[in-house]
Amino acid sequence: NISTSPMFQMYLEELKDIPEYTKEQQIDMYKKLLAGEESMVHALSNAWLRNVLEVAKKLAVSPEGFEDIVQEGNMALFLRLSELCGSHEKVDVEGELLTAMKSCIREQTGEDENENSVVGKVALVSEAVNYLKKQNGAQPTQKELADYVKIPEDELADILYMIDKAKKDS
User: Fold this and answer.
1) How far apart are CA 98 and CA 84, in angstroms?
2) What is the C-alpha to C-alpha distance for residues 150 and 128, in angstroms, rounded to an integer?
3) Is residue 91 within 8 Å of residue 84, measured between CB atoms?
4) Is 136 exposed, middle or buried (0-12, 13-18, 19+ CB in 10 A)?
5) Apex CA 72: angle with CA 12 and CA 110, to 5°?
6) DSSP label at 141?
7) Helix (H) or strand (E) holding 121
8) pLDDT tens sequence across 58-109
């Protein structure tokens, strides 16, 4: 059972617009990532969205938790891609991403609710920013974003700060 929330349905819609890459194209993208090409973090995050969904389906405990698990998987994926970017490590990028994603999803099933809530909101806001930017052709205002994700502006400001800090730290 897949979540029916509007945010999650938007996520599934976005999946339709993402190109599927051949094994060779992905290997080339991994090489560019390891060499430090930052645009590959976003490209590979998108390329892996379907994988996240598949892993989440296998590991999801309940339909209610499914959306959170997908968000956690995406967050783990993004963070690991950011860590690998420019590392010049000789690693199996696919293996690294699967491991990070699976361990994060497994942790999700037994972690503190408050922390899950924050991580979920960060992922939700990030997706909403991208979606609204695509729809309106401009960066959404904090008010537009707050109205869209139904999060109070003061709480949203904290979440945007966390997102900004995570980008700077990576």
Assistant:
1) 13
2) 11
3) yes
4) exposed
5) 130
6) P
7) helix 113-136
8) 765 566 677 777 888 888 888 888 999 999 988 888 888 888 877 776 676 5
CB 26 within 8 A of CB 47: yes
- The Cα–Cα gap between 64 and 3 comes to 7
Alpha-carbon distance values, 149 to 124, 127, 134 (Å)? 8, 10, 16
**Tokens 């090409």 sit at which residue?**
37
* Residue 144: CB atoms within 10 Å: 15
pTM of the model: 0.57
Cα separation, 66 vs 60, in Å, equals: 6
**Do residues 107 and 59 touch, judged by C-beta distance below 8 A?**
no
